[in-house]
Amino acid sequence: NWCFPELQKPMAVLNKFHTLNDSLWDSSYAGLALRQSSALPDGLHERVQSALITLQRCGCLLRDLVRVRDRDVFTAVSRALVGQPGYTYRYLNTRLFTIPWHCEGEEGQKDEKEKPCCDSDLRDQEKEKKEEEEEDSGQGCSHSSPPSSTPPPDVAGLVQFNMTLINYMDPTAMTQLKEEPYYGMGKMAVGWHHDENLVPLSPVAVYSYSCPAEPKNEEKETETEEKACWRVGLKVAWDIHTPGLALPLQSGDCYYMTDDLNQTHQHCVLAGDTARFSSTHRVVQCCTGTLDYIQKRCSEALENLHTDPEKNTKSLKSLLPSTLQHIEDIHNEVEFEWLRQYWFQGRRYARFCSWWTKPMEQMEKDWKEMERMVRVMEFSNSCISAKYCPILTNHTSMESLFIQLCRPLYSSL
Ligand SMILES: O=C(O)CCC(=O)C(=O)O
């Protein structure tokens, strides 16, 4: 029951043998909707398309290294994630960090020299993406974002997308695009998949911009040759008997996957002949994927640290194995889910946008502190397992011995 204005049923040829009649539509593809380019407000195309081109010219669109069936591969499409400041998106074992979008009049984060976090050109483009998102959801910028773990309200059909994953591919620069394997639909820019980590039943809204063909010299005077258009492919998941759908997309068209379509179906992107951008607006499940969340986790772990302001020494408040296990879990989460992902993928964007730089430096410091705490934990555990050690066996209270041993040890590490 998401309300998108002026949507149309796609009129699409499915494959060589089937056309999309009403009964197949109702039974198999009812959650898909198309909004043709001409139904979008005047002026929007020009602004959005120039924003996409600027992102690409600034070098913001990069291929991601992802894990598919136990292999590390680069995506054929180049991507950038733009969205709510401090949000991340995890797909195919990779965490992407948002280039923050900014609302009109909003101050935004500044760096030490009080400069805005993003390059000014880029900042304008991010505002553009934010405005496009408002067009897609049919609402203004005045709503504050919903709690990241709860579905957005469906009252009055409003959707608060929290990010957009932008894709770009020029098929003329690609040598090895895979063939669509089930229906013979042609070359795929993105293979069959479900979008991961979305709030259940939330819609995905996609703006598609196919760049005009660059005329070859000899074509200048004559008519340019007809170019194959880009299409989005859909199929029922785990089913290759129901005809698959290949929906042609003209430049500027939007398509929407609503209700449970993303769960019940897979989609792919079928390459046309010219370069193409898409902006895929999502409501991502972010309960463990925001900077706010992970900073709170770091504070939880560091609460176990007592600092003596006079001696300027640090010690652990509790040496209980359960506390230390909790710290080790947070330490691992910070290292594997955030720092490594940032060093690997997120830091690439620091050239254009400094938003993540300071918080990630602080996170690295917190991680080092946790590392020291965990080393003490390992030491205390090794004392427990050294049950034949004469010093320990003579003591009645193991706990008090550990406290004596480990507290000063922490400060000397
Ligand atoms: O480009 C599109 O139309 C969709 C892209 C897509 O499926 C994705 O980014 O997951």
UniProtKB/TrEMBL annotation:
One of the GO biological process terms: regulation of multicellular organism growth
Lineage: Eukaryota, Metazoa, Chordata, Craniata, Vertebrata
Subunit-level organization: Monomer. May also exist as homodimer.
Location of the Alpha-ketoglutarate-dependent dioxygenase FTO catalytic domain: 18-286
Superkingdom field: Eukaryota
Segments of skewed composition (Basic and acidic residues): 109-130
Keyword set, alphabetical order: Cytoplasm, Dioxygenase, Iron, Metal-binding, Nucleus, Oxidoreductase
This protein's record includes keyword Nucleus: yes
Protein name per Swiss-Prot or TrEMBL: Alpha-ketoglutarate-dependent dioxygenase FTO
Pfam families in alphabetical order: FTO_CTD, FTO_NTD
One GO molecular-function entry: ferrous iron binding
Disordered: region residues: 109-156
EC main group: oxidoreductase
Species assigned in the record: Sinocyclocheilus rhinocerous
Family matches, as InterPro entries: AlkB-like_sf, FTO, FTO_C, FTO_C_sf, FTO_cat_dom
